[in-house]
Amino acid sequence: MKKLIITGAANGIGRATVEQAIQQGYFVIGADKDADGLYALQRLYGADVLEVHVADFSDSATLKGFIAMLYERHATIYGLINNAGIYHGKSIYHYCDDEIDEILNVNLKALVYLSKDFAEREMRHEAPRSIVNIASVAGEVGSCDAMYGATKAAVIGLTKANAWNFAPFVRVNAVSPALIHDTAIYDTIPEYRRAEYARQEILKEPILPGAVAEVILLLAGDAMRHISGRVIPVDNGAYPR
């Protein structure tokens, strides 16, 4: 049974990815700061297929030590889904210093440390492994939340660089969602931005977390074994590029 780490596992896209991964036969290692959400998932699916860790990736010690902790109990892990993220939906003028540090840690620095620590261990096996990062259309076209847009743009750059850094054994790709319904972020996005996303979509079925999860797991799996360094949009055709 292949093992898959999923951060931000308790809700939204992360939860949908956990559920679909288990259905596809993965053993999932889920991490989130939402303890209640994590343990509810584990009660639903069972500890034999879902291991959970309460982890706050805004804490520097946690993001630097998380992968090492996992390898104390796991000899090898197939894949890493870097999904945990923060969105405030506000002007950069309204960010305080602590919020800037928090969003940089969760949205970017966690991906740096988790990815390099995972790849360093798995490249020794000289076998195919996979990392999927969750970016955002905001990283490609900008965001009213400048810190969110900046961190997601950096995720795209990190994805492309690490595809080179971790070759030939660890593939690195990103999924770039647009307006995703039924998530905590959706209600935080200002109404005028939601309207703009909807106006540009050329496909009109609302995008749900499960649809993004399908793309994440497709990228993670063997069917995409020849794909690395790519950013795959899930955006209903918005922002054609």
UniProtKB/TrEMBL annotation:
<dbReference type="InterPro" id="IPR036291">
    <property type="entry name" value="NAD(P)-bd_dom_sf"/>
</dbReference>
<dbReference type="GO" id="GO:0016616">
    <property type="term" value="F:oxidoreductase activity, acting on the CH-OH group of donors, NAD or NADP as acceptor"/>
</dbReference>
<comment type="similarity">
    <text>Belongs to the short-chain dehydrogenases/reductases (SDR) family.</text>
</comment>
<dbReference type="Pfam" id="PF13561">
    <property type="entry name" value="adh_short_C2"/>
</dbReference>
<protein>
    <submittedName>
        <fullName>SDR family oxidoreductase</fullName>
    </submittedName>
</protein>
<dbReference type="InterPro" id="IPR002347">
    <property type="entry name" value="SDR_fam"/>
</dbReference>
